[in-house]
Each structure stands twice: as C-alpha cells, then as structure tokens.
Amino acid sequence: MQPTGTVKSSVINLVKTIVGAGLLAIPYAFKSDGVLVGVLLVLLAAITSGFGLIVLGKCSKTLINPRDSSFFSLCMLTYPSLSPLFVLAMITQCFGVGLSYLVLIGDLFPGLLGGQRDWWIVSSSSVVVPLCLLKKLDSLKYSSIIGLLALAYLSLLILSTFVYEYTSGHYEQVRGDVSWWSVYDFTGLTSTFSIIIFAYTGSMNLFSIVNELRDNSVRNISTVVNRSIAIATTFFIVVALAGYLTFGSNTLGNIMLNYDDSSIYVHVGKFCLGSMVLLTFPLLFHPCRIAVNNLYVWVELQREKSAESHQECEPLNANTPSSVRPISLSVQDSESRSLANSYGATQGDDAIEDLETAGNGSPQAGMTDSRFYVITALLLTVMYALALNVDSFATVLAFVGATGSTSISFTLPGLFGYKLIGTDYLAAGQVIPPSEVFYKRCSFLLAWFGLIVMFLSLYVIYMYGTD
C-alpha cells in the first residue's frame, strides 16, 4: 500500500491515541500531588514520552527500508531471543486497554440512554467492527477527528464549569482543600504517579504512523511527535487544573462523577465520553492485530529453523515466502552489506545472520488477507466475550499498564535507541555526531527510567491495590 499519511492526519491519530479516557483521571492525581508537583509530573511525562517516540522514529531509520519498522523488526534486530516477550507486552497492553473500553461502553450508555449493559456492548460492534477492518491507520483519521471533538467538549465543560463556579462564588460549596505548592498526600502521590505517566502512552501506533507518512523523514517524525505531545499536554493541564480547582480534595477518580447528573450538559459530556471511548478502540486494536501477527510470524520462523536444522539444510534465506517475513532487513547490495557488518561488529555474527535472513514486508505486507481477517475475527470475538462476562478487572488492568505501558513507552525505546542510534554512521565509516551520542546516552537513561516506573507502579499495586 502506498503511504498516504500527512503530518496533520498523523498528529490527529497520535493525539487521539494518547488522549483517551485517562484524561478524566488527571485531576484526581492533582488531588494528591498539589498544583505545582502535578504540573511538574505532567511535564516530566510529556518530555520522557515524547523523547521515547522520537527515539523510536530515529531507530526506524537504521533499517534498510524504514517503512518496514515495527517493534518486532527492531526486537529481531537487537534482542531476537526476547522478541516474543516484547511482542507479548504490546499485545497485553493493547488488549487490556481495549477490553476496558468495551466494559466502559457497557457501563456508560445504559445510564444515559437506557437499555441493558450487554445489549450496548454487542451493539457497539456495528461501529467498532467496520473501523477495525480498515487496514491502514491513516484511514481512521476521520473517526479520530470526531473523537477529538468529543474530547474538546469534555474539556470545555470542565473549564466552563470552573469559570462559572468562580465567577458566581458557588465554588466554596463544592470545593475541598486546595494545595498549590506542597504535596497534599504523599501516599496518594505514590499511587497516582502512574496515572500521569500512563496517560501519555501512544507508542503502540508510532511505527504505523512512520510507515504511512508520505514524507517520513526524521524532521517530519519529530514534528508529528512534538505537536502531538504539545496538544496532549494542553488537554491534560487544562482539564487537571480546571477540574481540581473546582472540587479540590473532593475530586473523584473520574472527574465526570463530580458533576450534577441532572444537567443536560453533563449528559452530553457523558455521551461524548462514550463516543470517544468507542472511537478510540480501533486505534488500540490496530497495533494489537499487528503484534499478534508478528507473534505468529516469530513462531513460524522458529518452526522453519527447527525443521531445517533437523534436515541439516542451509539457513533461512531470501527465498522464504514473504507472507511470514515481517521485517525488511535482507542484504541486497554493498551498502546494505556494510550496514549488516556494522551491526555484526557490535552484536556478533548472529546479528548479521538475523539481518540477512529475517525477510521483508511491512507489518501489513507481512500479513496475508486471510490472516488479517482471521486474527481480526478471533481478537474481536475474545474481547467481546470477555467484556460481556467481566464486570471489573481493575487489578489486571493496572498490572497491564505497569508492565506493558512502561515497556513500550520507555524501556524498549531506550534499549533500541542505545543499541541502534549511530550505527548508520558507523556503517558508512563516519564518526557518530555529538547529537547522536547524546540521543544514545539519553536512551540508556530512558530505559532505566522505564524500569523504575514499572517497579514503582507494581509496588503501588501490591501495597495499595487499585481502589
């Protein structure tokens, strides 16, 4: 498929991937953190997440064909033995959050429009399934625009309520204590830290955006990331400040629960929330399907290698069918051979073999039509079946966020960047520029930051649960 993405459409999809229902939990984080610390944590999350996205974009340029980039291709290039583990992290993250969205749909719409919970979950498939059958992420830009309009209404509702409460003097009746400069609750600070960090998760769709951009230069990728992070940060800070300063220490985990349920504006806001969740689901399903396909490909590659080793055949070569080869890392000319040798110099001879034998095709090109529809049908069937039978799985979802989200947002980008950034210069016999050395060292720190966030989040889940 020809790349059709523009900077504008890519920003729309990335912002919609990042800004989801988690937006409404940010004011609750400020309840414990206070205004100053809360804003600082939002900026920390913005900087680290944005840096991770840019690192992934730069890593895609180390591939012979940058449009074949994916988490799986970079895993096979850098840590091939750990590829299935990293792919599973992606699957659990996207599957878990997507499933929570279906459950939320069943919780929201019956209270707004009547009807049974199960009926609303099943009927949501009339919107979800057609969107999930679109093969390109760029095709979801129009549904993402509708989702962003819903987000804009929610943000305006929260902001306008704050302005009204202050100008009318009613805020004293609904607002609790407000902490401007100090932390209000240190125990709560620990337990809400992950809320802000996880709110910026958007790396699951970064490679699809890179692959589909008509001009996927590093400059364009950086523009998409910087604009998306800036827009998302504006959403987060405006909603957090307006919501927290309206209700103070009375702020609930979902800020919408603080508002008068009899208000027509609040009803419209909850409808917008349900619509936003409905239209965000396909953005999470898209990378989940790619990850499942890549796991299938990895299993097929291992089976082929095992069969060839038993038959004492030659190693996997370029004649292996493209339908099971998701990575474009085959060595076809002297320049590519030089690149392969540069990896081998730092990673050993096995890396050269992986480069030469991993195959070609993007995540979409490496997925036959029949496999595309089979994976789509299986995933949707399982997710809907679970959504109909699970009322709450907060602990599982929190665990998924602590492990999967931190892995794909910080740890993996950091590991990839530390190992790959600058190798294209070495392959050409050039000295790595200071700017690339800076990115490489910061990538190492990002990986450690991800591990710290993961263990801190798991500690919070163990000590305080998910209440």
From TrEMBL:
Keywords attached to this entry = Membrane, Transmembrane, Transmembrane helix, Vacuole
Concerning Pfam families, the annotation shows: Aa_trans
Per UniProt, residues of the Amino acid transporter transmembrane domain are: 4-455
What GO terms are given for molecular function? Answer: L-arginine transmembrane transporter activity; L-glutamate transmembrane transporter activity; L-histidine transmembrane transporter activity; L-lysine transmembrane transporter activity; L-serine transmembrane transporter activity; L-tyrosine transmembrane transporter activity
- Annotated InterPro entries: AA_transpt_TM (IPR013057)
The superkingdom of the source organism is: Eukaryota
Question: Major location, coarse class?
Answer: membrane
Query: One GO term of the cellular component aspect?
Result: fungal-type vacuole membrane
- Is NAD one of the keywords UniProt gives this record? no
Location comes to: Vacuole membrane
Q: Where are the transmembrane segments?
A: 12-30, 36-56, 77-105, 146-166, 186-207, 228-247, 267-285, 372-390, 396-421, 442-464
Give a yes or no for keyword DNA-binding in this entry: no
Q: What is the membrane topology noted in the UniProt record heading this document?
A: Multi-pass membrane protein
Q: What is stated as this protein's family in its record? A: Belongs to the amino acid/polyamine transporter 2 family.
Protein name, per record:
Amino acid transporter transmembrane domain-containing protein
Query: Which species is this record about?
Result: Zygosaccharomyces mellis
Q: What is the lineage of its organism?
A: Eukaryota, Fungi, Dikarya, Ascomycota, Saccharomycotina
